[in-house]
Write a structure and sequence with these properties.
heterodimer, A: alpha+beta, 2 domains, six-stranded mixed barrel, four-stranded antiparallel sheet, 13 helices, 13 strands, elongated, B: alpha/beta, six-stranded mixed sheet, 10 strands, 25% strand, globular
Chain lengths: 410, 258
């Protein structure tokens, strides 16, 4: 062990004796490692920000819909109750209906996109309430004409967000309904997935049952409902159970009447795509690492030839095959390890620089590059392995030299 | 005196088969502990090959070589490394110091390969450098020293691990006469200290410092004579005698060839 330290010392002193050459050799490894780190951390950072922003939209949501030509299958209120009772991991179930209309305030006339929702709407909202509250279960059951509007829309309609208690008269299906505003929702955070434009319709959210009251129609069957899974619940298990249950209740086993789209599944696909792209680019970067490794081997071979006499002297003085081998191996390992370290640091610095530039150019796409400890460990190990692998051949060549041959050469 | 080196029927044949070269042709001899032997011969006589055998740098084609009681003829590369490390201190014509190491680090090398722990190693290396009078030069690189000083570092390195045999191959070949005298003085002192010194040279004046002369020609030992300093005269006189003897032998051999 103490001898191993001696070999390291020898290796370091030799690297120091050939500073320029050692640095150029390292450069190959530095470029390889830093590009792998750069790509990985940019890829991870981008993935994180996309996942986070998409999760903000609809994490855990599952759309469940009927799909048949006859139109004779649907989901009933009883079905919803049965799902709530039998399937664990569901936080809320909702169904809604959009109706276009218009309204007039002293700020002018506005298009309205009104949606009748169930009381569970509050769980599906991703922004949270700013003033007031969401409408509740009893208002829903009673079909009371109350509504929630968005922060920006409140400003457009009334010039203020302090509008709880005001009435908003909306003409829907040629009938005027006077909604009492009970809550103002926070505006959505800007992200790369939000699209807003001037004169977009005002969105209002009200109990679906209002439509029953006003128009006298029964809205107790649905062609599409939305499930919200609890945090960290297994959405694919939930969907199979729900579909199973519905097929059982409507006796349509295996006919694929009830279909679903899970947001988490879609997100998984996006993640997979980003991962694959990151891996592919990293692979290309890793090839440059191998080129760097060959550079190390090349320089070590030159070094062995140059130091033939030294090897002869060392062998004459009693160095064994193993000693010479270890000395040269330590040299290539140290070169690649230092190169790897510098590469990791410069790769991370590069990633932060790129992120900074992106944030400056377009704040919407701003992200923090993220490097996992695993990535760092893997690349460190990889660079050392490259050092050892490409160092073995030259080191063996040195170690196998016959001392007289080596001493004879100049 | 105890026998330190014993070679029997030592042969070294290059290019076996056609164009065989018998670099060593049936050499048998003994060297006792504490002897000061000079092996002399012209270039191409086989003395360098013989020195490589004695130094365990090469293995003979046939014959046996007992060094310090151990048969080293059939040992592996690593075993030979071990033997060289423990039994032999080399002094080369070209000094063979490692250029990017300091004098001290060069002297330390055989001790590193012998696994001597750090503090002990330092002490032994220092003592060795002191013996050749270079303790104040220990941090100098070979390129910062004169030839004579470099050879003294090499001697310190050969002595550091206190091997029983000092093997000096033309130690003064690259030195001026003043440095040569200095080096030979050190070798004589080593002999007086009781070490076995084997000197390989083609220079009779250098060989005259030894107490026994072995002359090699065409891979064979052609003469093996003891010298008594004081009785036989000064070093110059002895050198002249050796030269005359060599002349006789050359005549004899060339007559025989005809």
């Amino acid at each position: 062990m103490s001898q191993f330290f001696e070999y390291l010392k020898m290796a370091v002193s030799n690297i120091k004796a050939n500073k320029m050459r050692s640095f150029l050799t390292m450069l190959g490894i530095i470029i390889g490692i830093s590009s792998v780190i750069l790509i990985m951390s940019l890829g991870n950072g981008a993935k994180n920000v996309i996942t986070e922003q998409m999760a903000g939209i609809a994490a855990g949501q599952i759309a469940l819909y009927t799909f048949d030509d006859t139109g004779s299958y649907y989901i009933t209120k009883d079905d919803i109750e049965a799902i709530k009772e039998n399937v664990v991991g569901i936080k809320a179930i909702n169904s809604y209906m959009y109706i276009d209309g218009n309204t007039m305030t002293n700020k002018g006339e506005f298009q309205v996109s009104a949606s009748g929702q169930m009381a569970s709407y509050q769980y599906f909202s991703t922004t949270g309430i700013l003033n007031g509250r969401y409408f509740n279960e009893s208002e829903y059951l009673a079909g009371e004409p109350v509504c929630v509007i968005g922060e920006n829309d409140a400003v457009r309609l009334f010039g203020s967000t302090d509008v709880v208690g005001l009435n908003l008269d909306v003409i829907l299906w040629d009938m005027e309904i006077s909604f009492r505003i009970v809550g103002v929702e926070q505006a959505e955070k800007e992200s790369m997935f939000t699209f807003t434009y001037d004169n977009s319709p005002i969105s209002i959210y009200f109990p679906l049952t209002v439509l029953e009251q006003v128009y006298g129609v029964a809205l107790d069957t649905y062609y599409q409902i939305y499930l919200l899974a609890e945090d960290h619940a297994d959405t694919s298990a939930i969907t199979t159970q729900v579909v199973d249950l519905l097929e059982r209740r409507h006796q349509c086993y295996g006919e694929d009447i009830y279909q679903f789209e899970s947001f988490n599944d879609s997100m998984q696909i996006v993640n997979t795509v980003i991962n694959v792209v990151t891996m592919m680019i990293s692979l290309v970067a890793a090839i440059s690492l191998i080129v760097g490794g060959i550079g190390v081997m090349n320089i070590m071979l030159v070094s062995v030839t140059e130091r033939t006499r030294e090897i002869g002297i060392r062998k004459a003085l009693g160095a064994k095959t193993r000693s010479i081998m270890l000395q040269f191996l330590s040299e290539s390992a140290i070169i690649t390890m230092i190169g790897g370290l510098i590469g990791i640091i410069s790769g991370m610095a590069g990633a932060f620089l790129v992120a900074k530039i992106v944030a400056m150019v377009n704040p919407m796409f701003a992200f923090t590059p993220s490097v996992s400890i695993r990535t760092i460990l893997t690349t460190t190990v990889f660079s050392s392995v490259i050092g050892l692998f490409f160092g073995i051949y030259p080191a063996r060549k040195a170690a196998k030299m016959s001392p007289i041959e080596a001493l004879r050469r100049n | 005196m105890e026998t330190l080196i014993e070679v029997k029927h030592l042969m070294k044949i290059y290019n076996p088969g056609e164009n065989e070269v018998h670099a060593l042709d049936d050499i048998s001899l003994r060297i006792k502990k504490g002897e000061f032997v000079a092996i002399i011969g012209q270039s191409g006589s086989g003395k360098s090959t013989f020195m490589n055998m004695l130094g365990c740098l090469d293995v003979p084609t046939s014959g046996s070589y007992f060094l310090n009681g151990r048969d080293v003829a059939g040992l592996s590369d690593d075993e030979l490394s071990e033997i060289r490390n423990r039994e032999i201190g080399f002094i080369f014509q070209g000094f063979n110091l490692i250029p990017n190491l300091t004098a001290f680090e060069n002297v330390e090398l055989p001790l590193i390969y012998r696994n001597v722990p750090g503090a002990k190693r330092r002490e032994m290396s220092m003592a060795s450098l002191k013996k050749v009078g270079l303790e104040n030069r220990m941090d100098h690189k070979p390129s910062e020293m004169s030839g004579g000083q470099q050879q003294r570092v090499a001697i310190a390195r050969a002595l550091a691990a206190a091997p029983p045999v000092i093997l000096a191959d033309e130690p003064t070949g690259n030195l001026d006469s003043a440095s040569s005298k200095e080096i030979m003085q050190i070798l004589r002192e080593l002999h007086e200290d009781g070490r076995t010194v084997i000197l390989i040279t083609h220079d009779n004046t250098i060989a005259a410092s030894a107490k026994r002369i072995i002359r090699i020609m065409d891979g064979k030992v052609v003469a093996d004579t003891g010298l008594e300093h004081g009785q036989d005269g000064t070093i110059e006189e002895i050198a002249a005698k050796i030269e005359a003897q060599a002349e006789e032998e050359r005549d004899y051999v060339s007559k025989k060839r005809k």
